[in-house]
């Protein structure tokens, strides 16, 4: 009887809990392009918040019969969930004949109502959604926007305060993902849970290294939380819980200042190190690390919270997880397989094999890491790219790869202290392999960092994202001309393997794929094979393994006897020196920020940014048997010769566009070559030796090249303005900072300190970090003190009415309602970047905020972009201006677009 009463009370309590709707009015589907983040046809008819819901009105759509779609009612058995594929109304088989997978890309709105049963802060978390909104029905202008956990990583938690008895309307913007489902299917699932605690731990994001044969593989760990209270957290302290096993075994050292604020609604990761108290202690599972977090909030309240991280124990002969500090000082992990032999005993050290996973691949999942074998002389490193989808192994994912490799070489994770000399490792000799998205990553890493490669085996990869799923169905493209389209596409073009594939010439390469691959068609691999062969003038430049009767993945794809023979040959041939430089090779780049040296030539600066730069190298011996390098250049302003990697043969003389220099006197970074023609508009080149690096302070350099996404490739802080006379403006700017932090946390496992401009000034007075970090500044120079202090480095001027000019005070003026701008500028030292996000008003700031790229493949962010009031509706067609700064961060007429009418 007691249990029956308990059950009845539980059911009553459950029924009284606030529940998301299970009945939805759905409008759609509307076509949208690959990675087209901003576009909404309904804005042309008043916008989703203003049109009638559930009536008989129809709206034009390419996917609808008679060219229109209307409202439908859908019921779900689970509140907060819905699945749709539109197969009852759309013949997808007919549609995909001319358009292939790109036709499956659509969006729609699913709208439902619910009532809050208690006044509380709530955690809301939606998977497989990019965006959703919650509106107060009693005050319809009160609308809160949220970012969904699109790839279902498990870290999409956000907070909202709901009042008891109030009615709310939720708008779920459904978005299909061809890469996730391979079809037109889409779904979402949302939870809404009341929360009383000031912080809530996101335990799926907790990280600690494995225990390997009784020792901790590496010392780094982190926990992630969300400030689920109503007040900002003023400070916190992290420690090991008293009387726990962890407290008896370890000392804990936080890697972040305890005075760091965590704003209400902000997700935040706390990194730390742990050290054994007793060096000879052998660790045994099962046991946990019990952590206490003490906080002080803005209301002066002190509270304690507790979380646990379980340890996993394994053996040195098995794959294991190790942790490391990434480029932004967050703790990330990679999986590792130790060498079969003690290769550090050899004079050449151990080498690295790096394996990049496919789309939605979970590095720590056995379905991935059990596909590899331990190797003689090689560590097998399996990085995450930050997340399961990462950034298609570009940008932050690419940098994560090399930080994980460096961590293996310096930390030797899992190796006992007394044995580390046996595994001495050279991180500059890498065998790159990968599959699917990781196959593209494999090609991308090779084409950018060829001087680190002993070779590569790229399986089922593709040369560029826009070829895998076409961008041509993007709705916004219909509103713009080729001039703007090209500027936008250039922002992701540096990640295209084909355009810089000349860098692959001379590297030992294999392309492997299944003959019947229906996920990544063999055409993609064959395209790369053909391009490398053409530029090598060798029809056998790339080994091709086209496996009969196999599809996208098969057992042994990267590990069968055929592959093992290939790996063994590479290790045998290049254990001492890397593959030799070809007699002729062209080194290419679109962006020096992400391209390392090839053939010991490092391009530092382009003459015109974001246009293809090339250096053609031809090796010739003169009559004295001296090796001469003849270099011909295109669009190169500065380049250098690197002393590493060490080569068996190296030139004594350089001839650069006809000018002779002696190479051994002018190695990077002590010197570089600069093109200083007598006339700016001339292809008559005049190369001089530059033996100082002062230019870095004032000109574009690899650390500050752009485009906007480069802001996320270093440690950064967000600073919002507080000097506006409008309190709503200050609140919006603060919320914008939380919005950026949370999407960076979701897509990239990042974590950022968010400060007001006054707080940042106070911090600088204690320790000046302004030259060692990137900044995102929210608010213009009238609203943000830090923007005002740094604006001298840009070509943007803000006026007192929040209008602004680009190119000088009498140049291009942007004013009026709903105009926003996001632009890059260097910091005062020229070594890091600042991104300013501002608007003429609330709508303008909101539009510029949504131009910032949240994931790879987004093209709305060159060095600067000006958004008009139609940006939400027209997407690319709502852009007023965009472009790339010249080498002095000034407006470039050749890399600039202006529109004056967008509607």
From TrEMBL:
<keyword id="KW-0732">Signal</keyword>
<protein>
    <recommendedName>
        <fullName>Peptidase S9 prolyl oligopeptidase catalytic domain-containing protein</fullName>
    </recommendedName>
</protein>
<feature type="signal peptide">
    <location>
        <begin position="1"/>
        <end position="19"/>
    </location>
</feature>
<dbReference type="InterPro" id="IPR029058">
    <property type="entry name" value="AB_hydrolase_fold"/>
</dbReference>
